[in-house]
Amino acid sequence: MPKARLIDVSKCIACRACQVACKQWNELEAMPTEQRGSYENPPRLSANTWIKVEFRERPNEWLFRAHTCMHCTNAGCEQVCPTGAISHHGEAVVIDQEWCVGCGYCAQACPFHVPDKDEITGTARKCTLCVDRITNNLSPACAKTCPTGAIKFGERADLITEANNRVQTLVNLYGYRRAQVYGEHELGGLHTLYVLTDTPSVFGLPEEPRIATSRVGTQWLSGVIAAGVIAALPFWLLFQRKNRIQSERESKEGETR
Amino acid sequence: MTTWNAPIYVYLWLAGMAGGSYFAAFLADRFAGYDHKRLTQLAIQMGVLPAVLGVLLLLADLGNPLRFWHLLAEFKILSPMSMGTWILLAWVAIAVIMNILYRYEGHHPEPRVQAIHKLNSGLGGLEFGVSVLLMSYTGVLLATSNRTLWAGSALIPPLFVASAVSTGIAVLIAYILVVAPVTIGRTAEYRLPARLLTGSVDWAIPTRLVGRLWEAEAVVILVELVVLIGLVTWLGSSAMAGAREALNQLTFGALAVPFWVGVVLLASIVPLAFDMMSPGKELHRREVFRVALASSVCVLLGALFLRAVIVIGGQI
After folding, report:
1. Which of A115, A158, B259, B307 sits a CA distance of 20 to 30 A from B125?
2. What is the mean pLDDT of residues A133-138?
3. A232 Cβ contact partners less than 8 Å away, ≥ 6 residues apart
4. Is residue B316 less than 8 Å (CB to CB) from chain A?
5. So what's the ipTM on this one?
């Protein structure tokens, strides 16, 4: 049975214990940061920050969402990786640090802007879903430490049922009419699921995430068609047709003389 | 913060230049009834340098350049970077073999020359196909991503293909005018470029060929301009997240100056104005030589600006 991580934004209090636990378990260096007019810190996910609570302020309401790798079933990063360094280990999408060349293509392909190139190691790095922990029947560090139960780890099917129940509660009891589960079907099913209190875009998530390679055939075709048009338009027209016309004219002029 | 910077857009520019110059030379030769064989030789000799330079830039941009051989341990049809590695490798390998065979052709008795010629002709056709893939790859690499400017439409590959061909033609013209010891077509006269620019020597260049290339360049630039307008229109009208922001960055934001000056003026308007001045006319005046050269330089620089603006713009 596949496992997953569930992040319930309605239970998140932005204590950032997940960030600290992640850094501690994975031995990630701290980032020098500065006051940017927000409690949100550090400013973005990076090669050394694999989970980060995003803050969004609305009138009378703070929205918090722990942003991290979604561990997609159809992972664009895995498909575009030219060396095969990115692969699935069960549910987790993991970058092999010994094989990654640091081309940065995964960063361009991810619809959630997760992988980041580390200038020191020269490799792309991101959340591993604590693959070393979950393969030993432990939950990821972020889920283990979360004091409010906003981050949970378990059987994916169970978590989806729990998430749907929670959404019903949010809609019926708390009046979050646009509350929804995110990740059940997106990109073949994500292994980081969300309970959202509003639409995905409000939380900075793409409404309909798309795998980067979904239109790769069309893109190749558009390039080849363009080459065909250019071959036909100027080259055939100028080098064959116009040359022939000019040669005929020259030979006619020769005859009249 | 951008992941891909100058090494990547210069690499895409150089790879496009290599593919575009051979594409243009091959078609010019075939459509003119094999009248410009020397032009294809020129393109294949000249193209190796930008292709190899591009590969070196790509390697330098890797986080772990010494692991470059990992790229050769995989063949992933869905990954444009993997496919591009193999395409570029194939392009350079065929170019090197063709160059060797061209040299070999002149030093052997007739029957063997015929065989070499046939082999080179076959390789030439193959290299043409690889050139089309190489030019397309420079756009498909960006288009297979989740960046709205690159992947939202299917216009980046055609834009980069058109730009690669115009760049290829520009570099061929510049090479014919400045560098090549020309014995192309009907002309067999050559003077040192410095004397052409400054001296009063009488000189001749392959008039019809350069004229045709120049005209072809103008049409390709028009195609490029149409695709660019299509891209801008799509960005302005699309409801896709990030499309408007990308358009604002290009037209009014941080990239406005390189976009308007570099891409629109330098890559399109100025070369078109130059092209309208002289195509088809007698090309034996020093002024025309200068105009043709200036036009080619504008196209080359403009194409570099285009790639820079698109590569950086997609990541902002």
Report:
1. B307
2. 95
3. none
4. no
5. 0.91
